[in-house]
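Fig. S4 source data, part A: sequence.
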Amino acid sequence: MAVKLTKKDKEILKKVGYEEQDFKTIEELTSYVKIYFEDPKTKKQIRVSKEKARQALGDEDYFSALGRGIFHFSTVRELKNKGLLYFRRETR
């Protein structure tokens, strides 16, 4: 299911280096990206929502990671020594 980017989302994506021509792909493939939190002590991964990931990272880091996950199939972001967030495009 495609996601509709807001005007603010698009402004943030432009700020982190994406172009308008990328927006359609990002909208179409966002639902295929799954996000996992890895606890630094246990190394156990649990799935988290995009909303929680965005809240934890902030808008710019979130959209940077989301875009990278879409176009490169995976990426990881560190949460200030509190663990890791993995973004993975799992299907399509």
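Fig. S4 source data, part B ends here. The two ends are 12 Å apart (CA to CA).
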